[in-house]
Amino acid sequence: MKNVTFCVIKGSSPLFYAGIAISIIFIALGLYSAYNMEHHGHIITGMNNQIVWGLPHVFAIFLILAASGVLNVASISSVFRKIFYHPLARLSALLAITLLIGGLCVLVLDLGRPDRLVVAMTNYNFKSIFAWNIFLYNGFLLVCILYLWFMMERRMQQYYPTVGLIAFVWRLILTTGTGSIFGFLIAREAYHTAIMPPLFIALSLSLGLAVFLIALLIDCRETRCSLGENILHRPKTLLGVFIAAVFYFVFVYHITHLYFTGRHGIEYFLLAGGGVFTVLFWFGYIFLGTILPLLLLYHERFTHSRSSIAFASVLTLIGGLSLLYVIIIGGQAYPLEIFPGMEVTSSAFFDGASMHSYVPSIWEILLGISGIAIAALLTVIALRLLPFMPRSLADKDIDESLT
Amino acid sequence: MANKHYAMVIDLNTCVGCNACMAACAIENQTPVWKNEWRTYVHDTEIGDRDDQVRRRFFPRLCNHCDNPACMTVCPTGATHKLDNGIVLVNDERCMGCRACAMACPYDARYDVTYADIEEGTNFYGSLQRKHPSVDKCSFCAHLVAKGEKPACVKTCVGSARLFGDLNNPNDEVAKIVASGVAKSLLPHVGTRGNVYYISDLERTS
Predict the structure, then answer these.
(1) Which letter, b or e, does each residue of B149-160 get, where b requires 16 or more Cβ atoms within 10 Å of its Cβ?
(2) What ipTM did this prediction achieve?
């Protein structure tokens, strides 16, 4: 293989400074939101006793899934020995770390009381899938840091494939754990199904690759790194496969529910009568997040355009967010069936009677976006300080035997 | 001697919807009532087929203190725990407020107590026993039960609709009612095995 040299970004362009400034503003707003939400609780958010996990949780899961999936590029290089992807591995591992930190920040600031984080880190209930996930997330962070170190440090190169394999297996378990948070919940009809972990794994792969392609295109523009058509072609094709895989699992998820008469209610709610959830599913996920990206990636008219790849990646992210919103919040909006066999026509306590409404508050939106801002800021700083980006990704600089 | 196994039976025939249980519970446990959050509440519900005669029913609800509590299983820090006598409690010093229990509970029995609630509660109740926020729930008034008393809602119930007793004592009234099959727990198919039983008016035999 030809020697690949890596470089730092110059960090002198208006885009660089604008990106940093916008990220810092959103992080500050997110922290202020977290303070307010922690102090006042649900009452100032769109959440309530029925919808206990709101928009910040959607963002947190989105970032964690993307973190797990973005490592796929590095895994293909070190685990599946496709050396063609080797020049991209550093960026892949870096994004896995920064996205995970962004997601965990939102999770900690929304899902608990940060001042009592030490409680969560020192007391464990090992029956709890949440406790497992605390280990899985922290462990993933550690493994990714090691992975990155070993791939950048020449002396550690011999251990690089081993750590790569550990990281690959770890992230599969991590995404299984994240999916199991919902798969193990018996109380809500939309959850409680074994297909959640594979669905989340597929979703992580598509979200991660979409994030990677966007980051790659932006970074190449910033570093003026030549980007060959071949280096874009394979991930692009892979993204289409992952989008189709997510659709397959979503299809099986719904068809399984539709097979059970007892779950027709939740299916009708999500697919036909659920208002914003139905719109997000059909328009947000199916049309914007599945059909349109596949068209852009595979149709002869669009498939060679970089704008199409970038646009398809952005649409994949929008589709993923929409799907997570429908799963996480839509699943809670459908009321608990507390009185089976009875028809509850009214209730002063909003349970058992009607669908629960949820409108995210500005605090939740800001906290969620701050997670993306944290990931973006950390990525930009890391790219400025250490050589993660190849100096050239032009086709002529990539070994022809590998392309 | 076998451990006690506390349970509650609620007779829907004699619940008159006076909400005295809610008031007694709120005072005893200092719950954030100003934002309509209670450990126990009585909702008046219309139940019945549309073509049938619709009946208005008062339906007291609370934590079911399950034998197999879903909220305890998911709690990452072990803040939700179970006493040997079957009462499920929340250790507010260990609760980190992740609300996983609220997601897992099929009975919708959890609610969030925040720092703001502690400030408000101190003004509202004069002084507050609670020092930490948590995702709170009914405790079957474990502090009263430990002293040999009944939970506040049971003591105050006007129609004696709420009965509290030990399922492991065959002579206990609650144990007899449950053993007779007249009283049923909610969502038996979920497998949580709740310890709050209801006597429906349709199934009343005596």
Answers:
(1) ebbbbbbbbeee
(2) 0.81
CATH fold group of domain B6-203: Alpha-Beta Plaits (3.30.70)
- The amino acid at residue B89 is L
Quickly list H helices, B30-134.
Answer: 70-74, 100-104, 115-125
Interface of B with A in 136-175 (CB under 8 A): none
Minimal CA separation from B116 to chain A, in Å: 5
Could you tell me if B197 and B9 are in contact, meaning their C-beta atoms sit under 8 angstroms apart? yes
A138 touches chain B (CB under 8 A): no
* Chain A residues in contact with B187 (beta carbon < 8 A): 337-338, 340
Q: Are the Cβ atoms of B100 and A128 closer than 8 angstroms?
A: yes
- Residues in A closer than 8 angstroms to B49, CB to CB, are 343
- pLDDT by residue for chain A (403 residues), tens only, comes to 567 788 888 878 888 899 999 999 999 999 999 988 888 877 788 888 788 899 999 999 999 999 999 999 999 888 887 777 888 899 999 999 999 999 999 998 887 677 777 888 888 899 999 999 999 999 999 999 999 999 888 888 888 889 999 999 999 999 999 999 999 998 888 998 999 999 999 999 999 999 999 998 888 877 777 787 777 888 899 999 999 999 999 999 999 999 988 888 899 999 998 899 999 999 999 999 999 999 999 998 888 888 899 999 999 999 999 999 999 999 999 887 766 555 555 555 555 556 778 899 999 999 999 999 999 999 999 999 999 888 877 777 665 544 4
Query: What are chain A's domains?
Result: 6-402 (1.20.1630.10)
Quote the CA–CA distance of A190 and A378 in Å, as a whole number. 35
Which of B108, B117, B118, B119 is the best mutation test for A, with the most CBs of A within 10 A?
B108
CB-CB under 8 Å, A41 with B112: yes
Residue A168 token pair: 């690959």
From residue B27, alpha-carbon distances to A205, A238, B30 in Å are: 52, 61, 5
- How close does chain B come to A178, measured CA to CA in Å? 13
